[in-house]
Amino acid sequence: MVLRIGFLSALLVAAITLTGVAEAQDDDLPVVVVELKNPFDQRLLDFAAETLADTPAHLFVLQVDAPGISSGEPGPLYAAIGEAEAPVVVWIGSLPAVAYGGAGSMLNIADLGAAAPGTRIGYLEPTVAKGGQTVPLRIDRFPGATEADRRATAKETTDVLRSESVVIEDSIPGYVDYVVPTVGQLIVGLDGASIVRGDAVFEISTAERVVLEDGTEVASPSRPVRFVKPGLLDRFLRLASRPETTLFFLVAGIIAATFEFYAAGPGVTAAASVVAFLVAGYGLATLPMSWPSVGGVVAGMFLYTWDFQRNQLSWRSAVGTVVLLAGGMTFTAARPQFAPMWWIVVAIVAGAALFYGVGLTSIVRSRFSIASISREYLVGRSGAAETAFDPDGIVVVDDGRWRGRTDSGESIAAGTAVAVTGVDGVVLEVASIRGA
Questions:
Q1: Roughly how many angstroms between the first and final C-alpha of the chain, as a whole number?
Q2: Domain 375-432, CATH 2.40.50.140 — does that match?
Q3: Which of 66, 171, 356, 360 has the fewest Cβ atoms within 10 angstroms?
Q4: Which pTM value belongs to this model?
Q5: In sequence order, which residues have a C-beta less than 8 Å from that of residue 333 and are 6 or more positions away?
């Protein structure tokens, strides 16, 4: 009786074991591709770590294109890579993707590293631009017969990658195991690979062989491939995750606020200005900023506005252009990891100059002009100074508010009666009636 019970128990255990193996081999879990682009901040780090911890998958592929980790704590993500229930492969792609700083270190932390040919890896230090974290190397990822050999290879490779970047054309010990141009080719090419993590061995099954009508045998994915990316809110805030986009939203916010003030709009541009400042503020808070350069950008925009207020093109606009361009080129403090793209900076500065020099002047002139009564009609009309003139200010003539300037440079107190003596573009030249 005892023998019979033992025999039945053994059969039951064997059946459960065989069933588990069959399910492991025939499961339909997907290959999950996690898109991680632009500088990593805490929101992106948390998203990636939570995806690895909570998403069922046969294989994870982290598709990385990032100049580094701008801010945040990457430790939980690095831990999630090592503790994921499925193998984790980091792929740098597609061209012209880069992986610098802590983003590049993920190639060593993952079970396998891969990259598209022509992409770049390097500048591994600092790991986090706004922090002092370091990443422990996985010595087992480096080739060598002994641990001493592996440590020597690790030192030789990382000494180069810490301070410079390299173009990936071939494998790099400890970091890049496969060089493949597309994520699809990577997934199919991993079919049949065995990945060892501690005592666990993962058998990758991602492709099947298909024979075409002409007899050619090709490999095609045997599993569904699921692409995941951060949520809408994260993507909205991270519009300013790069230095050049933060610069754009900061300049756009100032331009929209200036337009609202001078063009007396219905409030739409004021709302746009608030949104632009909100997005720019996120970038300023997460990126390693050079605050003197940020101040230079604001100063350059102020000089543009000053010249527009005086309705003239002077040295202020020239200095503003130089200061704005210099501030944009040196916008961040962690270069070359986070160097702004110079041609985008030039485009932003050119756009700001054209807006103040042509766009805003034309819009304000159009808004404050009256089809039936030309501005010249106002010459000789009387009004009152709404603000003090020294020598510029605001004057009210026939219930309309105008930018004004005293024709003789005299100071006029607010509330003083004035007469219009001339028109210069959208600016009225006035004189106090008492002094006329």
A1: 126
A2: yes
A3: 171
A4: 0.75
A5: 129, 288, 289, 290
